[in-house]
Amino acid sequence: MKLPLALLLAPLLTLVAGLHTSNWAVLVGTSRFWFNYRHLANVLSMYRTVKRLGIPDSQIILMLPDDMACNPRNAFPGTVYSNSDRAVDLYGDNIEVDYRGYEVTVENFIRLLTDRVGDEMPRSKRLLTDDRSNIFVYMTGHGGNEFLKFQDAEEIGAPDLADAFEQMWEKKRYHEILFMIDTCQANTMYSKLYSPNIIATGSSELDQSSYSHHADNDVGVAVIDRYTYYNLEFLESETIGDLFDSYSYEKIHSHAGVRYDLFKGGADAARSRLLTDFFGNVQNVEIDGTRNTTMIDDELISLSKTIARLSELAREEEMAAKNQSDTKPAPRKVQVAKPLNDDNWWTKKLVGATALVGCAVVWGLGSYFEASL
């Protein structure tokens, strides 16, 4: 017995419907000033890693409040390093900063997440995601109990962040989110989240600080935070669970936190997610499984019949035109007056003038002879 096409495709459509089709990254540094060099290095280290794992610049939003590479205190102008051996220049020649300097504000960050921007906003500054997009949101800076400072001028609170994520869910702007934050008392920033399909992790508990890993004596300041350093070291592993299990107080000097309860399937499903589900590039093609495949088949058949009918009409018109040209009598030759050019026109004028002069001479001679007689 022949099964309907829709029944055969149902398992495939169900599988595809559960997959995501793109990965995006929102990387936010919120600290200005030279002594916060490590926060800029944190963000640029994550930027380099997600690019190396395959997410293109067109799907990375990078927010840098200060340009440490061009700071006059920088002993290595035009560069930013996250390790004292200075093996890798994080600034390099291939960096695309989307929000820079005083563009890095709480308002712009929330507008970016919720897409509440005007038509004049360039595509490079927009998070063009949908309900099949996985988003990695990374934030670093100075914070406290349920807040993160932006450039020592304003703060974003945990409820603000929670409401922004909820708007994203309501507007179908994400499939799953991995939220990572490196700041003092970081775990309090995800305490108010209530939207589904979010995995959250932070560097420190309530009343704990987030510490730097090491300093570069030539640069003169700390160059990276401990939590971010060990995350970057581990990003070659396979699953989210492996990454979180690698956190220890001995490494980070604070108690890293994890939250799974908002994620569909709970801790087991969240821990089994591959790191590349958030850090790597994905280019899946989404098939609309809600549409009736029988209707699609009928439309294709109807379209092919229409094309065949139009082709037949075109052939008939071509044959009719050919027959008409065969029976059509030869056209009669009509003599057409030859147009005058400039040379012909002056020749005829000269001939006419000569004739008039001749007539006048003959008339004058006749009058003379008649008078003499």
From TrEMBL:
GO terms for biological process: attachment of GPI anchor to protein; GPI anchor biosynthetic process; proteolysis. The active site is at 142, 184 (nucleophile). Pathway: Glycolipid biosynthesis; glycosylphosphatidylinositol-anchor biosynthesis. The keyword Signal applies. Keywords: GPI-anchor biosynthesis, Signal. The keyword Oxidoreductase does not apply. Belongs to the peptidase C13 family. This is GPI-anchor transamidase. It comes from Apiospora kogelbergensis.
